[in-house]
Amino acid sequence: MRKEHTTQSASGNASKLGTLFKMLGLVKPLSGHMVLAVLAGTLAFLAVQFIPVLGGYAILDGLGLDVPIPAATIWIILPLLALLRAVLRFIEQRLNHYIAFTLLAIVRDRVFGALRILCPAKLEGRDKGELVSLITADVELLEVFYAHTISPICIALIVETVMCVYIGSFHIGLGILALAAYLCVGIVVPLIISSLSGDMGEKVRQQSAELASCVLENIRGLDETIQYGSSKERMTVMRKKTKALQWHQSALNRLTGLNLAIANSFILVFDIVMTVTAGWLYLQGKVGFDGFLLPVLAMLSSFGPVSALASLGTTLQNTTASGARVLAILEEEPETEEITGREDVEFRGAECKMVTFRYGKGKTEDGHSAPPVLRNFSLSIPENQIIGIVGESGCGKSTLLKLLMRFWEVKKGKIAIMGANPDDPDNAKTSTYGPGKAVPIDINEINTSNLRDMESYMTQETQMFKDTIAGNIRVAKLDATQEEIEDACKKASIHDWIMTLPNGYETNVGELGDTLSGGERQRIGLARAFLHGAPFLLLDEPTSNLDSLNEAVILKALREESKGRTVLLVSHRKSTMRVADVEIAM
């Protein structure tokens, strides 16, 4: 049992070390600033550490002993060193924080970029509160590493090396003693505390994320909580998560206190040992009085840099845990790779051939094979037609649309876009494919941007941003004019309602569109699809939140708008299928 624990601990330490090295690699673009910060910090610490040493030289001069610097000069140098220390310390902190906050901006940008690539497949069903915690708290905590860890470690290595050489110049034994003191305080103590804390830092970060998720969930569900009188139960859950976080955070804080106590005890012991050892060497005649006084003064003033390292035993626990969570997002492989560098394709229809698809790795939690959502499914989608698909919940209707968008990648079977052929005089625009009116091109061979341009996808739940109505619709076409937005809204049968609002298209929809009804959000989503202007419309339950009158208006607009377009319409409503040219049951 003990052997297994040791192996796991070693593995965990190796993982933490790997995380730190990866985080360190992000500093490369700002390495010049880091070098200047280390140089300024080193000179600042040396300036303050040699103030008592110079005082020792002044004492020796007063005793009539030979010294390299006379006392009169020392009294001039001392205030200059104090002033220099303040200036250099400011420069070091300024550079460190510039590096830290610049890197935080870079990391946030990379995290958002990674989330965009991972979305939607890898983020589907993922806890949104956890993602919010990662983007805010975890990234913010990296500031500790970049501003208060890298530079202090480098400064401690340089400064204490200089001090070991200086103290050792009087007697090699004293230099070895100083080295042992610095290693104990700066390395041994942090390692011991880090080992005692185990994965506590990781648990604190995880429980912090869970609490943030719980709070977000409770805020969003306040209406239901009040309606059903479940406030007490929800508060009980939140208190339980809060207490779990407090317990682990308190334990980590206790270790921080223990860390400082052990480090300060080591410093006191080594100061005493240095004084006793130097005094014994003086009494033995192996060093002069300067060999007793100056090493002791140097030792007493030299623990500043390693004291900063001593506190890293616990602070790095939280930092490495946050860094690991951030790096996990940056390094996670997307479900589908972005395709670039291919020749653009012009849409002339689509087809599915013998598609079998299951989510994830095809295994349930108990290890059994998960049933496929689609099995040997084939479908031809001719150009300029409305294809209606009906079926029970869970039969794969929405999954089919996601596969056509290439949010997920088909492992068995093929989904293709019928691409235009230049040999056909009716559509001689793109492609170098062989003869025939249209050639099926696997969507895995089409540029991702090209595929997204030729498809407009309306989901069951229209995502609204905290913006105006016009801003929410303009998402589909960022350079759209006001006339284009209004035209799209007229087709979605929502323009007249918008014009009744006091601010019209400039009305703010609130967070997540909470000022709008389900039907209003749905019609805004349909307006987006119309505004995008793609030749292939993928509509997932576009009328599920509409009454019969509005459904009829939307279907009429859809029939008129579908001229020159291909529409794949998914719905459980039989009434919606009236607009379809072809109806397919799944």
Structural overview:
- Helices cover 60% and strands 10% of the residues.
- Strands 6-7-8-3-9 form a 5-stranded parallel sheet, with helices on both faces.
- With 586 residues, it is of the alpha/beta class.
- The two termini are 55 Å apart.
- α6 (172-197) runs parallel beside α11 and α7 (200-220) packs antiparallel against α9.
- It has helices at residues 2-25, 31-62, 71-118, 128-148, 150-168, 172-197, 200-220, 222-227, 231-283, 289-300, 304-310, 312-331, 397-404, 448-454, 469-473, 482-491, 495-499, 518-532, 548-561, and strands at 347-357, 374-381, 386-390, 412-420, 438-442, 455-458, 536-540, 566-570, 582-585.
- β7, α19 and β8 form a beta-alpha-beta unit.
Q: What's the arrangement of secondary structure elements?
A:
Elements: H1 2-25, H2 31-62, H3 71-118, H4 128-148, H5 150-168, H6 172-197, H7 200-220, H8 222-227, H9 231-283, H10 289-300, H11 304-310, H12 312-331, E1 347-357, E2 374-381, E3 386-390, H13 397-404, E4 412-420, E5 438-442, H14 448-454, E6 455-458, H15 469-473, H16 482-491, H17 495-499, H18 518-532, E7 536-540, H19 548-561, E8 566-570, E9 582-585
Helix pairs in contact: 1-12, 2-3, 2-5, 2-10, 3-4, 3-12, 4-7, 4-12, 5-6, 5-10, 5-11, 6-9, 6-11, 6-12, 7-9, 7-12, 9-10, 16-18
